[in-house]
Each structure stands twice: as structure tokens, then as C-alpha cells.
Design goal:
The complex is a heterotrimer. By secondary structure, chain A is mostly helical. Chain A contains four helices and no strands. Classes of the chains: A mainly alpha, B mainly alpha, C mainly alpha.
């Protein structure tokens, strides 16, 4: 919160520093009795003071950019977490694996059972036939 | 050995020349395929450039398999394959002779089908005739080599007619992909000869590899 | 001993499966941080969908081992003409159809999670698909070719083994992690190594158990055939 207030204040300063202070809605009202020329002179003094330090404007830009960057990173991190913890496809893959394994087992089992019954039936028939012979 | 092989190839081709059965039916079948393509696919010039390589190689695959099946059926009818294998020539000569005859037959069918494709679909197939002929010849040779091995092995099999493509197509898939890419490079709006030559080389390597492999395993595959 | 072999292997595989599930989900947690300077993810295990890898790659390892064994067995069968090699080739290749299906399906699902497409015509996918098609063709030949099925199938296995590498060199760019010394198995870090090899061992054991069962099945089929012939001779069946 403090940061936002600070930024707003700084933004006002920046707007004034551009020299377009006259049109600024947030610019403090001129004290009563001051002429337009005096106001302009005072504003110029302020702007000069702020422009005296070349890092001042840059530091403001940097602060704002950092906040925007943070928002971008947050959005990416959110998306990333979404992909990262995506459990659905893992569940599908494991389910598919189980289904295929189960089908294979059922297939093998059924075939073995069919063969076993056939062998048993053939052996029975054969022994009966051999007994007769 | 080569002499025997050529003699066997000549024997097969002479039978074919006398009846012209496979050639005529396959050429007609190929022409029908082209007619079906021209109705089944959009035939405006831009679309044809994209689809004609596939049509060409699909036709080669279809006519090739059917021709192979029929040609080897002839040997089965009077059990002459056994006689050929028992003949006092190296068995490899039998294989090489068969492969040469089959390659010639498939090429003859292609000679009918490819101009028809160019004619009825307005396909710019003959912009680079040399490259086209070489790639189609290499493809036919590959189909004939691998096909002869399996058609001979499947001779006694039940349901050999359906099994021949089932066995052949997965093995021939690299050849079809390479052939299609080669033709694609030749008929594109901006033909790329470098790419076409690369795929022609690929076809050559494929043919060489499978020829060596076929020579190596043919004998043990056909002996019962 | 012979009768106990399959149950023992199955029990081992079941234990191995339980252990590897534990290892995958609890022993090898997601491990990553975000490097704030570059904004990149760094860590050994970045995505939850990587847990598909342990079973997908393990099945692929088994698949390629199986196909290799099947190819060698086919060569030996054509060379020596001993039925035992034919049985082995038939069993390994038939079982590897199921393993290939698992590789393709889990791979497709993982591709959707990681690349956002179900399928891509990329070398390893195309190669696996072609391999699987050859395996299915092999099984069809075995089933429907009749008396010469063994030779046709052996030829198909050998030709297929030569044909598959061709396709790898001819389609597009590889989207998979590197191969050879840069392959998955050799670039895993930390706990993932243990988990991965436990999974591979589990499915290898499972595969061996299945193959033995399948070979026993083939023997039973042969017994049925002999019994039928005897029965035919005696006039019991027609």
C-alpha cells in the first residue's frame, strides 16, 4: 500500500517535471494572491530540483516495471502450476496401461482355458476309444 | 548364376508376353484408379500438386501387390515353383530371375499409369523426366525384390491374397515415404532437385539393403 | 520348478509394481524452483506429467528388448529349424504387441499433456507405430497363414527389423529427449534413477512371466494338434 502511495506521489512529481504542470489536476492549488508568473517560476524550481538527479526518473520507471514484471511472472507461475500439477493425463495414462494389461491377461487366460478343456476332452475320448479297441 | 537368373526372368516375361494377362488387367486397374482419384480428390492445379505424389505411389503399391500375387499364383497352379527350386540352378538365381521379371512387369504398368496421371490430372509430373523415371524404377525394384521374397514364401499359405499386403506394406513403408517425398519435391511449385536427389539416394540405399537381405534369407524362407 | 516359475515371477512383478508406484509418487516428488533472474524452471523433476515417463519408457525398453529377442530367435529358427526358436519368437512378438500398445497409448496421452497434441509425425513416434504395425502383421500372419506361417512370420520379423531404422532417419525432427548417451536413462538425476530402473526391472520380469505363459500355450496347442491327429486315426473325431 505504502508503495502505491509513494508511486502516486512520484507520478505527480514526474508529471510536473515534464513541465505540463499547469494542466495537472493533482497539482496543488496556487496560494491565493500569487501571480501566474510566480507559480510558473516555482514549478520550474521544483522541476529543476527533480531533474538535478538523473537517476530519479529512472528509479521511478524501474519501480513500475518491476511491478509489471512481477505480475507477468505471477501469471506464468500460475499457468505453470496448472500444467505442473495436471493429474488428469497421468491418471489416463495409468488407466490405459492397466486396461491393456488386463485385456492381455484375459485373452491369455481364456485361450489357456480353452486349450485345457480341449486337451482334457480329447484325452478322455482317446482313452475311451483305446479301451474299446 | 546371372545367366540362369536372366533365363528364368525371360521365361516369366515370355509367359506374360504370350497371354498379357497381368499387364492388361493391371494397366486397366491402374487407369481405373486414376479415374477414381480424379473424382475422389479435388483436381484444381494447386491441390493436384499436393496429392499427385501420393496417388502415384499408392497406385504402384496396389498394382504391384496384385501383380505379384497373380504372377506367383501361376507357379502354384501346377506346382512349378517346386520344380524351379529343384532345378539344378542356384536357388538365388530363381529369386533374382523372379525379381527381375516382377520389376519389369511393375515398371510396364507404371509406364501406363504415370502418363495417365499426368494427362487426366494435369499434373506436372514430367517437368523432370529423368528424376521421375529413376525414382519410379527404384521404387518398382524395391517392391519387386521384397515382394518376390514374400509372395514366394506365402505361396502355400491360406488366404495369401490378403496376407501379401499385410506383410508387404509395413516393410515397404519407408520406400513409399521416400518415393512420395521425392515426387513431392519434383512437382512442387518451386521444385527442389537437391531434396529429390536425397530421396533418390535413400531409395537406392533401401533397395540395396533389402536386396542383400533378400539374397541372404530367400533360400531358407522358401524351403519347407 | 517349472510350474512355480510363472507364479514366482508374477509375484515379483506385483511387488515390483507396488514398490515402483510408491517410488514414483512418494519417493520422487516434484523438485523444482523458479530462477527469478532468467524466469526459467530449474530442478530435476519439473512436471507431474513426468510420472508417466517411468512406465512409458520402461514399456518402451521392454518392447525393444522383446523385438530384438524376437528377431534373433527368428534368425535362429530359419538357420537351425528348431521349433523352440519359433515358439520363442512367436511368444515374444505376440506379447510385445500389448507392450507396444501401452507405449503408444501412454505416449500419446503424455504428448497431449506435455506438447498439447495427441500425435505428431516425429521420428520416434513414427518408428514405434511402424514397429507396432509390423508386430500386428506378424500376429495376423501367424494366425491366418496356415502351414507356412512360421517361415513367413520369421521373414517378416527379420525384414521388419531392418526396415524400422530406415523410418527413423526420414521423418522430421525428434521432439523426444535425446538419444544414446543423452537418452532418458542416462540423464536422470538423483532419486529418479532408482525409480526408473526399478520400473524397468519390474516390467522386464512381468514380460518374462508373460512370455513363459505364452510358450506354454504354444506347447499346449501342439499337444492339441497331436491328440487330434491320434483321435482322427482312431476315428474318435471327424
Amino acid at each position: 500500500m505504502n508503495k502505491i502511495v509513494l508511486i502516486l506521489v512520484l507520478l505527480c512529481g514526474l508529471a510536473s517535471a515534464d513541465g505540463s504542470g499547469s494542466g495537472s489536476a493533482v497539482a496543488p492549488a496556487a496560494p491565493p494572491g500569487a501571480t501566474a508568473a510566480q507559480v510558473a517560476a516555482l514549478e520550474q524550481t521544483c522541476a529543476d530540483a527533480m531533474n538535478a538527479d538523473p537517476n530519479f526518473a529512472k528509479s521511478i520507471e524501474l519501480t513500475i516495471n518491476k511491478q509489471l514484471d512481477q505480475q507477468t511472472i505471477d501469471a506464468h507461475v500460475d499457468a505453470l502450476h496448472h500444467i505442473q500439477k495436471n493429474e488428469n493425463h497421468v491418471i489416463y495414462a495409468y488407466a490405459a496401461m492397466w486396461v491393456i494389461a488386463a485385456l492381455l491377461l484375459v485373452f491369455l487366460f481364456l485361450r489357456q482355458q480353452a486349450l485345457k478343456t480341449e486337451i482334457a476332452a480329447l484325452k478322455r475320448d482317446l482313452s475311451r476309444a483305446e479301451d474299446k479297441a | 548364376m546371372l545367366r540362369h537368373a536372366l533365363r528364368i526372368a525371360w521365361k516369366d516375361l515370355r509367359i506374360e508376353l504370350r497371354s498379357k494377362e497381368i499387364f492388361m488387367t493391371m494397366a486397366f486397374f491402374g487407369a481405373l484408379l486414376v479415374v477414381i482419384y480424379s473424382f475422389a480428390f479435388p483436381n484444381n492445379p494447386a491441390a493436384v500438386r499436393g496429392s499427385v505424389p501420393g496417388m502415384l505411389w499408392v497406385s504402384l503399391a496396389f498394382t504391384g501387390t496384385i501383380a505379384l500375387g497373380r504372377a506367383f499364383d501361376r507357379e502354384r497352379e501346377n506346382d512349378t515353383m517346386r520344380a524351379l527350386l529343384l532345378a539344378p540352378v542356384p536357388r538365388l538365381a530363381v529369386f533374382v530371375g523372379k525379381a527381375i521379371a516382377m520389376a519389369a512387369l511393375i515398371l510396364c504398368v507404371a509406364v501406363i499409369v504415370v502418363p495417365l496421371l499426368a494427362l487426366w490430372l494435369n499434373a506436372p509430373l514430367f517437368d523432370y523426366p529423368l528424376e521421375l523415371v529413376v525414382s519410379v524404377a527404384a521404387g518398382s525394384l524395391g517392391i519387386a525384390v521384397v515382394g518376390s521374397v514374400f509372395a514366394a514364401t506365402l505361396l502355400k499359405a491360406r488366404s495369401r491374397d490378403v496376407l501379401l499386403p499385410v506383410v508387404l506394406y509395413p516393410i515397404l513403408l519407408p520406400l513409399f515415404v521416400a518415393g512420395t517425398k521425392c515426387t513431392e519435391a519434383l512437382v512442387a511449385v518451386h521444385p527442389n532437385l537437391e531434396v529429390a536427389h536425397y530421396w533418390m539416394g535413400f531409395l537406392g540405399i533401401y533397395d540395396a539393403a533389402f536386396l542383400v537381405l533378400s539374397l541372404w534369407v530367400f533360400e531358407s524362407l522358401v524351403i519347407e | 520348478m517349472n510350474k512355480l516359475l510363472v507364479p514366482i515371477l508374477s509375484v515379483l512383478a506385483a511387488i515390483g509394481f507396488a514398490v515402483s508406484v510408491y517410488l514414483v509418487f512418494f519417493y520422487t516428488p516434484l523438485d523444482f524452483t523458479i530462477d527469478h533472474d532468467s524466469g526459467r524452471l530449474v530442478g530435476t523433476s519439473l512436471f507431474f506429467n513426468e510420472t508417466i515417463m517411468y512406465f512409458h519408457v520402461a514399456h518402451a525398453f521392454v518392447l525393444f528388448t522383446a523385438v530384438f529377442i524376437g528377431g534373433i530367435a527368428s534368425i535362429l529358427y530359419l538357420w537351425k529349424r528348431k521349433p523352440v526358436w519359433d515358439d520363442l519368437a512367436a511368444a515374444t512378438i505376440e506379447i510385445s504387441v500389448a507392450f507396444g500398445a501401452v507405449v503408444l497409448v501412454t505416449g500419446s496421452i503424455w504428448a497431449k499433456a506435455a506438447w498439447d497434441v495427441w500425435w505428431q509425425w516425429e521420428p520416434r513416434l513414427t518408428m514405434s507405430l511402424l514397429l507396432w504395425l509390423i508386430l500386428v502383421g506378424y500376429v495376423l500372419v501367424r494366425k491366418f497363414a496356415g502351414p507356412s506361417a512360421d517361415r513367413v512370420a520369421a521373414g517378416m520379423a527379420i525384414f521388419g527389423m531392418v526396415g524400422v531404422p530406415f523410418i527413423y532417419t526420414m521423418v522430421g525432427q525428434d521432439s523426444h529427449p535425446g538419444s544414446g548417451a543423452n537418452g532418458v536413462a542416462f540423464t536422470l538425476k538423483g532419486r529418479m534413477v532408482v525409480t526408473f530402473w526399478v520400473a524397468v526391472a519390474t516390467f522386464m520380469i512381468w514380460f518374462v512371466a508373460l512370455v513363459i505363459t505364452r510358450v506354454q500355450g504354444t506347447r499346449a496347442e501342439r499337444e492339441v494338434r497331436e491328440l487330434r491327429e491320434r483321435a482322427l486315426d482312431l476315428g474318435v473325431i471327424e
